Amino acid sequence: MRTNGFRRKFAEARLSPESVERQGRVARIAFEALGRDGATAFLNGHDDALGGRPLDLAIASAEGLVAVEQAIAARRGAQ
After folding, report:
1. How far apart are CA 11 and CA 19, in angstroms?
2. What is the phi/psi pair of residue 66, to 5°?
């Protein structure tokens, strides 16, 4: 019996609607504040002050989102 490769590809857990909303929000805020390259570097790199990758922290919880938003605001103010 053949299996459908497409279904197998999406066997991993998907983000909750709340996580997707936080992901979109933090990406939009970062892109507006830091520009494309700055936002990409910031969201995907490890941040020592936050203790992790900002995008992961923002997706994981509302508290993480707030912390990342504050870090973005601080970076924006430093520019």
Report:
1. 18
2. -60, -45
Q: Which residue has the tokens 């709340």?
A: 18
Q: At what angle do helices 62-78 and 17-44 cross, to 10 degrees?
A: 30
Which amino acid would we find at residue 11? Answer: A
Give bridge partners of residue 52 from the DSSP assignment. 47
In terms of residues, how long is the chain? 79
Q: How far apart are CA 60 and CA 8, in angstroms?
A: 25
Q: What angle do CA 16, 17, 18 make, to 5 degrees?
A: 90
Residue type, position 65, single letter: L
Percent of the chain at pLDDT > 90 equals: 76
Instruction: Write the pLDDT tens digit of every residue in 31-58.
Output: 999 999 999 999 999 999 999 999 999 9
Whole-number pLDDT of residue 12: 67
Helices vs strands, H then E, count in the chain: 4, 0
